[in-house]
Amino acid sequence: MPILLLDGSLEVNVFFEESDSEFEDNVCVSIAENCPDEEKVFRGDETVLYITAEQACQLARALNIAAQASMTCDAL
Fold first, then answer.
1. How many domains, the chain?
2. What is the pLDDT of residues 2-16, one digit of tens each?
3. What is the largest CA-CA distance in the chain?
4. Contact 27, 56 (CB under 8 A)
5. CB atoms < 10 A from the CB of 31, how many?
């Protein structure tokens, strides 16, 4: 399930890479950019980062905490 950011120019996909299941860092975070070079955040068209399940959980918790804080602020 892609997550589109920055008006759709940044596509983030997160998935378990089954073919790398023997490795500890088998959760893939793939970031693809579809915009002019001068607007790119990353150097390449696609950046792939492999993280561990524990790191994925830590990232999910941090995102949830930030989202909760943002929703709380919006309600004020």
1. 1
2. 999 999 999 999 999
3. 47
4. yes
5. 19
Percent helix / strand / coil, the chain, rounded to 5: 40, 30, 30
Q: Supply 13's token pair.
A: 């996909």
- pLDDT above 70 covers a percentage of the chain that reads 95
Residues 53-73, mean pLDDT to the nearest whole number: 92
Supply the range of the domain harboring residue 57: 3-75
| Secondary structure of residue 32 in the 3-state scheme | strand
Measuring CA to CA, which residue among 38, 50, 34 is closest to residue 2? 34
Give the predicted TM-score (pTM) of the model: 0.81
The pair of three-digit structure tokens given for residue 36, joined into one six-digit string? 């002019």
What pLDDT is stored for residue 67 in this prediction? 93
